Amino acid sequence: MSNPQPSERPEQRRGQRLLFLALLFGVLLNFPLLGAFSHDARLAGIPVLYLYVLAVWAALVSLTGWLVKGIKN
């Protein structure tokens, strides 16, 4: 019979999720993916690269806000 693992504190899990989120967006905003969107195509007159960066930034802000929302001072 195995011993159950002690439960992690919510702050520790939140910190791990925020670290994962930072690494994920570091990858999404790195050269290989930015290079894939760096061409002359436009959507509604706006370069696709700008739309990609804006979408990734908006996702980062909203997911970070969602994760941090539960922190109490």
Classification by helices and strands: mainly alpha
Oligomer: single chain
| Shape estimate | elongated
Number of strands: 2
Please give the radius of gyration in angstroms: 18 Å
Q: Which whole number gives the mean pLDDT?
A: 87
Ends: how far apart?
A: 40 Å
Helix content: 55-70%
Order of helices and strands: HHEEH
Biggest sheet overview: 2 strands, antiparallel
Q: Give the domain tally.
A: 1
Count every helix, treating DSSP H or I runs of 4 or more residues as helices. Answer: 3
DSSP strand content: 5-15%
Task: Indicate the low-confidence ranges by residue numbers.
Answer: none
Q: Reading side by side through the largest sheet, how are the strands ordered? A: 1-2
Keywords: Membrane, Transmembrane, Transmembrane helix
Protein name: DUF3311 domain-containing protein
Transmembrane segments: 18-37, 49-68
Describe the fold and architecture.
This protein is mainly alpha-helical and 73 residues long. The protein contains 3 helices and 2 strands; from the N terminus they run H-H-E-E-H. It has one domain. It has a two-stranded antiparallel ribbon with strand order 1-2. A hairpin with a 2-residue loop joins strand 1 and strand 2. Helix 1 runs antiparallel to helix 3. The longest helix is centred in the C-terminal third of the chain and has 21 residues. The termini are far apart.
